[in-house]
Structure formats: structure tokens, C-alpha cells
Design a protein that fits this description.
Structural class of chain A: alpha+beta
Mean pLDDT of chain A: 89
Distance between the termini of chain A: 32 Å
CATH superfamily of chain A: Winged helix-like DNA-binding domain superfamily/Winged helix DNA-binding domain
Radius of gyration of chain A: 17 Å
Number of strands of chain A: 4
Strand content of chain A: 5-15%
Shape of chain A: elongated
Oligomer: homodimer
Chain lengths: 114, 114
DNA sequence: TACGTAAGTATCGTTGCGGAAACCAGGGTG
DNA sequence: CACCCTGGTTTCCGCAACGATACTTACGTA
């Protein structure tokens, strides 16, 4: 997750590309696979599955599969996942506080190069 | 930078592979290119240069090139770089606090799969 | 004249993440 | 019988990061 600014590539990231956004989506309660695809605009099912499996493996979320047809699967954040979310919010704060400075440094660097 | 545990891949990382270690190396004062290559065991000059250039561009360090032969270049951490280092230490703390729990989750996941 | 030296470049190859598109399972519905 | 639904899986592909190896520069020294 790039913390806080998608338009500019900032060197602060936690997990893979979607980990952070998934945790945010799960913050307020369980969500289904298809309910995650909507806010996570543009994520393909393959990549979403991969991210969810990795996060389940690491204990950041729980996967509840209901044996129905059509299938229904709910994802739920764990306590450990919440600590990670908290850490991510810290990095978001860092970005918010220093992004201007970083972009300014980039502009100055550009001008020196010219 | 994987924060605090190299042996296990943990989904907490800041910058590219070497950013974190470079900042740590510069924490206590200026260092030359060759002085960075030593503690950063195994980094090739190409990759080290790429990392240093990116960090210079973003304002995390300053590059002092002395016009001598053979060349002498010193790298120095900036205030902005120090705030990033601080953030990284926070993520290291998170890892230290939760790595056991994460590994335990992985083992449990493994066993469920078997 | 050849060599050493510091800080890189240049070139090539490998690997892994992420994405696009198509396919699947299996019961419910028309 | 054909089609729809959800939650995937499978296959293929491109790009960027990372790495290995060789080369360069330009001066002081043996």
C-alpha cells in the first residue's frame, strides 16, 4: 500500500499492493469477496485471491466459507490485522506530514539536473 | 527494508531493498560509497548507486562529490531522512512485537492445509 | 610505460509481482 | 436444456527490481 498518495510513487509501502486497502475495507466489519472488489477498483480476482490468501496465512484476517451454492465467503479482520492497520496509519501520517517536502526535493533535484 | 527479520519474509517494508540499511549506515555520520558497500554485504555497485540516487532525489540524503582523483564521494543523511529512519524503527518495533504471532499463524495455516 | 584506485557505467540475465482474459463448479431458474 | 450466480482457478504476458560481470576515467606512482 502506498500510503496516502496514489499519484506519486512514495517509498513507503506495507505488504503487497492491496494489503493496506483490504484492511481498511475490513475495518468496519466482515466483507464478501465481491464486496471487496468494488472499493478496490481494478483489482483482478486472481490478485485479490492471492492477497487474501497471504493475509489469511499470516493471521491478518479470517476466511469464513459458507458451504452454499452459489458460494458465499466472508473475510474478517483479526486483532493482529488491526495492529498492522494501526501501523499503516502511522505511515500514512508520515507521508501526509512529509510528502510536500519530498516533492519539493524532487523538483529541486530536477532543476539541478537541467 | 524488511524490518528486523531477514530470514522470514514479512510484509512490512519501506522503500526498496536497501533504503533502510543505507539510512542506518548513515545514522552516525557521513559515509563514502565504498564504506557503504562493506556493511551492505552483497550489494552490487549498480544497485547501490540506484538506491542512493533515488534517495538523493527524494531528499533523504545529500551527495558530496569531491573533485579529486581517485574520486571521493560522501553521503550524508538529511533531516527528512531521519524522519524516515524513525518511521522505519517504528515498523521494526511492530515486527519485533508481532513476528512470533505471525509465524504461529503461518504454522497453524500449514497444519490446516495438511 | 604500466598499474592501482574510487566511484561509478554498461550490458545482460533472472525473478517475481501484477494484470488480462478465459475457464470452472454446481445448484437454482426459465 | 441452457443460462445465471459467486468465488474462484488457469494460462499467458509485461514490467520493474535485483543481480553478475566487465568496463571506464584520470591522475599519482613505481
Amino acid at each position: 500500500m502506498f500510503s496516502g498518495c496514489e499519484e506519486v510513487s512514495v517509498p513507503v509501502r506495507i505488504g503487497d499492493k492491496w494489503t493496506g486497502k483490504i484492511l481498511v475495507c475490513l475495518k468496519d466489519g466482515k466483507r464478501r469477496f465481491s464486496e471487496l472488489q468494488v472499493p478496490l477498483q481494478g483489482v483482478t480476482p486472481k490478485v485479490l485471491t492471492e492477497s487474501l490468501r497471504a493475509m489469511e496465512r499470516d493471521g491478518f484476517l479470517l476466511r469464513h466459507a459458507h458451504p452454499e451454492v452459489p458460494p458465499r465467503v466472508e473475510y474478517e479482520i483479526t486483532d493482529l490485522g488491526r495492529t498492522l492497520l494501526e501501523l499503516m496509519e502511522t505511515t500514512c501520517d508520515w507521508t501526509a506530514a512529509h510528502l510536500t517536502e519530498l516533492l519539493q526535493a524532487r523538483r529541486a533535484y530536477q532543476e539541478r539536473a537541467v
